[in-house]
Amino acid sequence: MATRPVFSPIFEGLQLVQETAIEFVWHPGMAISQRQLNIRSLHEAAAGAGLSPVLEVSTKAQEAIGRSLSAFNLTIALNSGRSVPIEVAFQGSKVFESGGPFEDIMKRTPREAKRDPRLRESGPLREFRYEGCSWVLEPVTAFYDWIYLTALSSRRELVDQLAIYKGFTDIEFNPKKSINCQARSVALFLALDARGLIEIAIESQESFLATLRRFASPTSKPSVQFTLFP
């Protein structure tokens, strides 16, 4: 058995994203067919918990829309006019104690960018530096969410297909090992978009953080993105 989260957008109140832990039968193996078997198992278990339909957001998704939403495929436009996958922008913006950002990563494929050895050999992560703007490490998913939301905001043809889904998953995301999750970012986008806040949120770093703080009430159960707000 394994447990993975399903992320659902919340359209009213002080919570933006609901995370529901779903236990399901895990099928070992690295082949795409095994990953897709696990996705089906996860989604069947989610349906049993009242969450259906659910969309897998990853390169392993069987639905084309899910693959298009993967951070390996969804692109963001740089100031230079060139577009790069979100995964490339994220990895290429990392600043470590002993180096970075490594600008040449911005010319790599997503898989090459993620596996660049300098990302593991340059000491602790200190910040992100993207298009001349520095992002600190708290809130922990702020930078990743911002670039993802910014990229998705220009793809309305994708957003328009998401209204039917009750939640989103990423079979590779294990909250015990990782922090950022493309499925959670999709849910966050839909929550902000439904409230008419998405354009304001992505306008700038300051605007994005200010928008999130509106939903960081100490009296409400916080969404997982915002647990490290001061």
Keywords:
single chain; globular; 230 residues; alpha+beta
Provide the spatial order of strands within the biggest beta sheet: 6-7-8
What's the pLDDT, averaged over the residues? 93
**Segments where pLDDT lies below 50 for 5+ residues?**
218-230
Count, helices:
10
Question: What structural class should be given to the helix and strand makeup?
Answer: alpha+beta
- The gyration radius over C-alpha positions equals 17 Å
Helix content: 25-40%
Form type = globular
Query: What's the assembly state of these chains?
Result: single chain
H/E series: EEHEHEEHEHHEEHHEHHH
Tell me the β content: 15-25%
Strands, total number: 9
Task: Describe, in plain words, how this protein is organized in 3D.
This protein has 230 residues and is α+β, with helices and mostly antiparallel strands. Helix content is 35%, strand content 17%. It is built from ten helices and nine strands. It has helices at residues 32-48, 64-68, 86-91, 110-115, 118-121, 142-153, 156-159, 182-194, 198-201, 205-213, and strands at residues 2-9, 17-24, 54-56, 75-77, 83-85, 94-96, 125-130, 133-135, 167-169. The strands form four sheets. A three-stranded antiparallel β-sheet has the order 6-7-8. Strands 1-2 form a two-stranded antiparallel ribbon. A hairpin with a 2-residue loop joins strand 7 (125-130) and strand 8 (133-135). The longest helix has 17 residues, at 32-48.
